[in-house]
Each structure stands twice: as C-alpha cells, then as structure tokens.
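Think of the structure tokens as a kind of shorthand, similar to the way a musician reads notation: each symbol stands for something richer, in this case the local conformation of the backbone. In the example below we present two proteins back to back. Begin with the first one, reading the sequence and then the tokens, and try to describe in your own words what changes along the chain.
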Amino acid sequence: MDKIGLIAGNGRFPILFAKGARDNNVPVIAVGIEGETSPEIEQYVEKLYWVGVAQIGKLIKVFKQEHVSKAVMAGGLKKTNMFSSWRNLRFLPDLRTINLWYRHVKRRDDHSLLGAVADELLKDGIELQNSTLYVPQLLAQKGILTKRQPSEAEMEDIGFGWPIAKEIARLGIGQCVVIKEKVVLAVEALEGTDEAIRRGGNLGKDDIVVIKVSKHDFDPRFDIPTVGLETIKSLQESSTSVLALEAEKTLILDIEETIKAADDAKIAIVGL
C-alpha cells in the first residue's frame, strides 16, 4: 500500500493518526516539528525526520526524497511560537517559507497560512488529505456522550453561547467560549482552549458551560478542533459541568478514556 506523509504537530493527535495508519497497514513517513512533536511518535512510524517550525522547503524535500504523494497534517503548533524571536535557530525560516509568507499569505490566521502550505505542497505533487483519514472513530457524534445529562438551565446556556462561539470562530478570534447563566465568562484567543477554560473557571467558580465549535470555513485537512484528557483535566479544575462540541467536526482524542474521565468527573459532553 502507498505510504503516507505525516506533518506532526504537538499533542496526541499525530500519535493516534500514526497508530491508525499502522493498523491499516499504511507506512507513515513523519516529519516532526522541533520543539512541538512528541518523540513518542517514532515508535509508530516507518521513518521520522525533524524540521524547524518555519522550514517548509526542508519538509517538502523530505517528502519528495521519500516519494510521498499524499500527506496529512495532525496536531497543533503553539501560536505563541509565531511571535518567538528568529534569533532562536529553530524558528529561522527557509527561503521557501519566506516566499510563502510574504507573497501568498494574505491574512495572518491559521486558515490562510495552512491553506497556503497545502497549495505549496501541491505544487510539488503532494496532496494534503483529510486529517481524520485513519481515525474517523474519534469524531464526536450527535447526542449526549456521557452518563450525565445537561440540566435544562445548562441547555439554555448552550443555546445562548452557541451562536456567540460560531461568531468568534467566523471572525477568526477563537473557537471556544465559557458561559454561566447566560453570561460570557471567557472567549478563546491566542492562549488556546485550556487557558480560556481556566480563565472562565476563575470567574464562574462552578457549574460553567464550555462550548467548542469548528471554524466557519472548516477544512477537514487542517481545521479540526480537538479535545481530550487534558481538556477534561482543565474542565475539572475549572468546575465545568458541561462541554458542548460541534458533532462530526470535532475530534475526541483517546475517546474511550476521555469519556470515562468525564463520567468520573460528572461532566456532561454533548455533541450538537
């Protein structure tokens, strides 16, 4: 079977994707991002190479020499790295990245940047695939996914917060809001979902509702929001009672363990 390339960011998703591909007897050629990708991934892939966060030219060179024609992006990058000093060698961009950044990226948001990277890969015959290719079972389904069900008041908070979450996603600000009694406690921005949850928890104290949605121009190649065990830990620390997710557009990493952790913490997870 043809091999697949994996552009591996941080978190559990790249590892779970590599496991899924291996279970389907598909060899994985992984490119890890220095300072982001877990070295654990090496045990699940055929080969692992390392590049800096802004070395698209080197990444493409690896895939071409390995005869990779299809690839997947999995895992995130710390957005704060975008503002790190290029005096740190691992953040120094190569010429192809500089050209991409200044000529093809019209907006400095994730969707524009990753879309430009996908186009750049395609120029060299490398087609980016949906990131759920070998892990469709991790997609959140519609309905109540936990033993605990949301109360009527919590469902009203979800109804209140959902259009707000979709609007901030449309504006490119973030994909998560924290709600209590129809009051917005926190809106996700550069800091990420877990920090937004903690910030909202500090204000709401208990029984808060967290809503996480996809982007308005959702692209399954690189835009899939994820939650997992670390999310549940943040929810528990913040005394969250409900997590509402956009069904079929959100990944639940380590799904069985994550649902069990939510059950143990008496947190309801709802797919909408």
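Once you have a description of the first chain, move to the second and do the same.
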Amino acid sequence: MEKLNNPAARFHSLLKIGQSQKKDEQCAKVWGNILNVPSGDSPLLLRRIGHVMELPSLIATEIRELPNVNHDIYLKWLPRVNASIGMMNFQNPWKTFIDRFDAEILYGIEICADTLHRSCPEKNISESTLKELSDKVIKLQEDLSNEDIPTSVAHFIMERLEEIRLALEEYSYRGSAPLERALENTVGKIVISPNIYQECQSSSYGKKFWELMGYLAITMTITTGAIQIGKDIVSLLPPPEKSSVVEQVPKPDSQEKNVTPSYKKVDGVIET
C-alpha cells in the first residue's frame, strides 16, 4: 500500500484511482464508487466528497509551513486544481473532471507528497491493522442490541463505535486524524462522566469495548504490533473510584450570624 501519511499522498492516490474509472459515467456515481458510498446515500456522498475537496488546501497549508522551501514552485499546480474543483458538476461525465488532472499536475502533487513524507509524516496504519480494527468494531456493533446494559452506556458506546467505523472506512483519504479524535472523544467523555466507565466495567461487553479502545490507543502511538499488545492497555485505565461528595448539613441554630460551618472527611465524603 502506498504510504498515505500526508494529504498530498492521499490526494494523488485518489486521482490515480479516478483515472482508472469509466469516463462516460456521471461524476456522482464515480465518486460513490471511489469513496465506498452506498447508492442513494447523498448526504454521506457529499460529506465524503467535501473531505476530498479539502485536501488541496491541506497540502498547501503543510507545504507553506516548511522552512527553506520555495512554496510557489511546490504549489504551482494548485490554481489549476482549485479551478477544476470549482467547475465540477456531479451530473456531467467523469471525464469532464478527471481529464483536467494531467501529468504535470499529478507530478506536482507527487513531489509534495514525497516532501511531506520526508519532512512531517503522519502515522501510517497498515491495511491488516485497519481490517482487524474494523472487524472488531462491526462485531461489537452487531452484538450491542443483545446486551442488557444501561441505556446511557449503550448510547455512548453506539456513538463511539460509529465514529470509529467511519474513521476507519475513510482512512485512505482522511488519514489518522479522525481516529485520534474518536479516541480523544471517548477518553474525554469518561473524564467528565466517570460513571460511564464504571458501568461499562460491570459487563463483559463493556470490557470488550474498552479492549477495542486499548487497541486503538496503541495503534495511534505504536503502529507495529498494535493489535497483539492492545489488550494490556485496559489494565492501565484507572479503577472505578467512589466520587467525593461535599455536603453541608445546616446546624439547628443556623440563625446565628457569622457562623462558619466546619468539615471533616470520612471515607471520601466530607461531613460537618
């Protein structure tokens, strides 16, 4: 698999795939084939095409951040690409779009891809790891309806699994950033709602979900052998703890002025 570890490499790969498509078919249909969008799902198609159309600006941003580089030379292809994107009509034949990307444009994008690969590569996840993660996500999604877990926990898991599934499915043109956000969203949720994690731990299904998050966490930090050692990360998660409760008990003679209540802490609970 090509090293799709920067936006230029991903854009170049998509264009090469696009050149192999039937040029007399409508643009919308070809984009659906390339981006793995089910027929008739227009919202998903538009969303994914939008992600692809963002790639040229992402390339330009990363190239312009490089020191000691003639940015204008590296991005000489950009105005023509932006013009081609602006003129794309979903109802027109595919050739009216893809034929605008000639050898000169592809070469310019490829040079950017090589430069970014050497200067600031992103995490690159292997196809086998992507497939194994995807299989685990789908299995958990299929099993969720048969689990007897609290509604709030089921809703949380359902949202996180779908976010991860889409991120895995769109990895070839969006990279690892959506997967990192999915992991951050999950961890962030249990920070503000620790009961979610505690309730997950009370079922075997919930533990399997956190094992998946362990796989993902390892994948985002170590791309070699991620799946094999992923389970171990579960043991690194903090054990459920009693939440501290602060409660002020009014004194019988609370009518007295300037009385400051005193507190003491007993078994994690502060009492007066």
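Compare your description with these statements about the second chain. Residues 38 and 238 are 41 Å apart (CA to CA).
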